[in-house]
TrEMBL record:
The keyword Hydrolase applies. It comes from Streptomyces atroolivaceus. This is GH92 family glycosyl hydrolase. Residues 312-795 form the Glycosyl hydrolase family domain. Keywords: Hydrolase, Signal. Transmembrane segments: none annotated. GO terms for molecular function: hydrolase activity. Residues 45-306 form the Glycosyl hydrolase family 92 N-terminal domain. InterPro entries: 6-hairpin_glycosidase_sf (IPR008928), GH-type_carb-bd (IPR014718), GH92_a_mannosidase_put (IPR005887), GH92_N (IPR041371), Glyco_hydro_92 (IPR012939), PNGase (IPR050883), TAT_signal (IPR006311). Residues 1-35 form the signal peptide. PANTHER family: PEPTIDE N-GLYCANASE PNGASE -RELATED, SECRETED PROTEIN.
Length: 811
């Protein structure tokens, strides 16, 4: 039946043509004409398919910067209670059961989070309950990537069934054109209960007189299926409301609950629970509307969502998308919004693939945080009650993967979008005040999920303040975070959710304050060694923040606590091959947890001692001294990135070496700067950029973790990287592009010039900061807080004398 694929291809071609027309309006001049001309239309280089394979866990659907709605497929591999990968989409899975309204970028546990209200264009009569289709054999459809197109703000797909979907979004609403074969039944299924993790309850109402479908789902359960503590999270914490209106009458209606289909009905309710497989299969509710497509095969739907109320969803739709707006109209506005956001960094030169990798990484970095407040400022609090944004706050944001983001993504946000960063900081403070003063380390919508370890919010807000962000209650936030770090909370003695989602945010704090390390046998945490390192990073950041606030007594106390990592460094721990001195977990009585192996994760969280031993960004000189000096430390670091034969080992898979797919060691390539061998940072970062990142679905090394891995690439390509949380100091590497302009609304622009930048010049020969020669491999806070310029002279071989003097090394 050739007409079906060709119709799909026509739709994709139409969307592509409109996108291309928009891109050409501000097109980049041909490279041959102006090789170093700054990019003027960044969206022309964004490929949302990057990271949709290889465990990147990104999604390709339509979303605006920081948007609430993210309209993207929910895939299926034959199990209605699961998907092909975390967050609903995997490039290798070409069958879907709906287009869901909410997604999270790169959350690491399968099925991830959100994926609320899958809407499925279905060709055929609805003759049984879609919830009873537990294998997704009937009410799902295959598709080809040839009939799929994703660009910023728009997603288009043609299904093998002959149906097509063309989606575009604003921040809280969207518009879709669904088309169907003219000679077959045409239906839209609203799977209201089928969120990625399941649901506690759901409801749907079909209003035939007003051509509307409304409803909601009560859900949550982020990482609720994890074996290491996930059962603690099988709970609801948010309700998503939606309101959809259509441009034509319904020909048929119906609803279902569990296995019962009720043709002609207009309301239904019922959840699925939070189990998986047979324990959940066949449960749930939803509804469908059918259309007569004999004369017109296209159906237009406008939809708004809200986390507050049905009225909020309708108001969001009314305010953001006009009644006559087309998909093309909304898509053009979305593309323009993304161009404005991405133009905060305009690069010049480089190859097509490099620009694609760069702007897609920036795109993924600026997808979050995500709006959860309505256009009227109302949002759901962590106490389950509705609230309004505080005075001066423009919006309430959420989705904070703290353990991941505090290492790179939040620094990029503060550098480029300080207003958003400030509102995000205030948002997290608002949540803490609604949560008995507790700052949760992984916040999804308004839910405290407790995922991972440490106290990343302290590191995050201290970094925001250090980098010049001021539009939040920074005194109140500091007081609250300092209290969390000094006053034990009852949750800190609970093992609920442990090890992966321990309820306590400063677990067994009284013991930690007495012993100066988290005792592995009584810590009520994921791992005592990891907890100690994470808390030391957070406390050092709080110390820097207190110093900037002029609170010197508190600064001294927290700065001292930032050195407690030394209490889990065992100088006698070895690898059996002559290398000694590793981070190792300790028991309450002071004994070391045994047996020990550098490749073991005992006492650690998603990493090994070999990786975590380098996780002391706040005291690199102290770490080097503990290892026997900078030369010894640098030689050990060489072995972290190379095999015994000297070949590179930077792609992961070796418990003793660098893992680019997870966060504890992603700062390690930049440690050479502090060890007096900055040329090794330059060559190591370039090796990772060239071999681990790329274009195409496999272009990310692993789970994007809400833009963290993408932010790492953005910094690496610009030739700068944040030294440590709580600081605005930037470490220097070799830029990938000859020119770059960071156009910043506050703090002053930053201009980066590296005329020799290309594949054969990965080394720094000399640097000027604001026109003055510098022999330091780092910049102080003024570059970030005031703006300025970096001018590089690059070379094809290392300059082993530049920035190596002990007095000028980053501390």
């Amino acid at each position: 039946m050739p007409s079906r694929p060709s119709a799909a291809r026509r739709l994709v071609a139409r969307a592509a043509a409109i996108t291309l027309t928009g891109a050409l309006a501000g097109a980049v001049l041909p490279p041959a004409a102006q090789a170093d001309a700054l990019v003027t239309r960044p969206t022309a280089y964004v490929d949302p398919m990057i990271g949709t394979a290889n465990g990147g866990n990104t999604y390709p659907g339509a979303v605006r910067p920081y948007g609430m709605i993210a309209w993207s497929p929910t895939s299926t591999t034959g199990d209605q209670t699961s998907t092909g990968a975390a967050n609903g989409y995997e490039y290798g899975v070409t069958r879907m059961r709906g287009l869901s309204l909410t997604h999270v970028n790169g959350a690491g546990c399968n099925p991830g989070a959100a994926g609320d209200v899958p809407i499925m264009p279905f060709v055929g009569d609805v003759t049984s309950s879609p919830s009873a289709d537990t294998k997704d054999a009937v009410y799902a459809s295959g598709f080809s990537h040839d009939n799929e197109r994703a660009v910023p703000g728009r997603y288009t797909v043609g299904l093998d069934s002959g149906a097509t979907a063309d989606l575009a979004v604003s921040e809280r609403a969207g518009v879709a054109d669904f088309s169907f074969p003219a000679d077959e039944p045409a239906n839209l299924l609203f799977r209201v209960s089928n969120s990625l993790n399941g649901s506690e309850d759901a409801e749907i109402e079909i209003d035939t007189a007003h051509r509307k479908v409304t409803g909601s789902v009560l859900t949550g359960a982020f990482c609720g299926r994890r074996a290491n503590g996930g059962t603690n999270n099988r709970k609801s914490y948010y309700r998503l409301y939606f309101s959809a209106s259509f441009d034509r009458d319904f020909a048929t209606t119906g609803t279902w609950r569990d296995s019962t289909l009720t043709p002609g009905a207009t309301s239904a309710s019922g959840g699925e629970g939070y189990a998986t497989g047979a324990d959940r299969a066949g449960r749930g509710s939803g509804g469908y509307v059918g259309f007569d497509t004999s004369a017109d095969d296209d159906v237009r739907m406008r939809i708004g969502i809200s986390y507050v109320s049905q009225a909020g969803a309708e108001a969001n739709l009314r305010k953001e998308i006009t009644p006559r707006a087309s998909v093309d109209d909304v898509a053009r506005a979305g593309s323009a919004a993304w161009d404005r956001e991405l133009a905060s960094v305009r690069v010049g030169g480089g190859g097509e693939a490099q620009r694609t990798s760069f702007y897609t990484a920036l795109y993924h970095s600026l997808m979050q945080p995500n709006l959860i407040s309505d256009t009227d400022g109302r949002y759901p609090g962590m106490d389950g009650k509705p609230h309004r944004v505080t005075r001066g706050q423009k919006a309430q944001y959420s989705n904070f993967s703290g353990w991941d983001q505090y290492r790179a993504q939040i620094q990029l946000l503060a550098l480029l979008k300080p207003r958003i960063a400030g509102d995000f900081a205030q948002s997290l403070f608002n949540f803490a005040r609604q949560n008995d003063g507790v700052w949760d380390r992984w916040v999804h919508v308004n839910g405290a999920t407790h995922v991972m370890t440490g106290d990343p919010t302290a590191a995050t807000l201290a970094t925001f303040y250090a980098m010049g962000v001021r539009n939040f209650d920074y005194e109140g936030a500091f007081d609250s975070l300092a209290r969390q770090a000094t006053v034990p909370h009852p949750d800190g003695l609970s093992d609920a959710g442990c090890p992966g989602q321990c309820t306590g945010q400063r677990p067994n704090l009284a013991q930690y304050l007495e012993s100066h390390y988290a005792a592995h046998d009584v810590c009520h945490c994921w791992g005592g060694a990891a907890e100690t390192l994470e808390d030391a990073v957070a406390d050092a950041a709080l110390g820097r923040w207190a110093r900037l606030l002029g609170r010197d007594e508190e600064a001294a106390a927290f700065e001292e606590r930032g050195l407690w990592w030394r209490n889990v460094f065992n100088p006698e721990a070895g690898d059996g091959a002559g290398t000694t001195g590793y981070i190792q977990a300790r028991n309450l009585d002071g004994s070391w947890v045994t047996p020990f192996s550098p490749g073991s994760d005992r006492g650690f969280a998603q990493g090994t001692s070999a990786t975590y031993t380098w996780m002391v960004p706040q005291d690199v000189q102290g770490l080097a001294e503990s290892m026997g000096g900078r030369e010894v430390a640098a030689k050990r670091l060489d072995g972290f990135f190379h095999k015994a034969d000297g070949s590179w080992s930077v792609k992961g898979g070796d418990a003793l070496r660098y893992d680019p797919t997870n966060e504890p060691g992603i700062h390690a390539p930049w440690l050479y700067n502090a060890l007096g061998q900055p040329w090794k940072t330059q060559e190591t970062v370039r090796e990772i950029v060239n071999t681990v990142y790329g274009t195409g679905p496999r272009g990310l090394p692993g789970n994007d973790d809400l833009g963290t891995m993408s932010a790492w690439y953005v910094f690496a390509a610009l030739g700068v990287y944040p030294q440590t949380p709580g600081s605005a100091t930037m470490l220097l590497g070799a830029p990938l592009f000859p020119t770059a302009l960071l156009d910043r609304p506050q703090g002053g622009d930053i201009r980066i010039s590296a005329p020799q930048a290309d594949a054969t010049h990965p080394y720094i020969d000399a640097v000027k900061v604001d026109g003055r020669a510098s022999d330091r491999s780092w910049t102080d806070a003024r570059l970030v807080t005031r703006g300025g310029s970096l001018s590089y002279r690059l070379a094809d071989r290392p300059n082993t004398s530049w920035a190596t003097g002990p007095a000028g090394l980053p501390r």
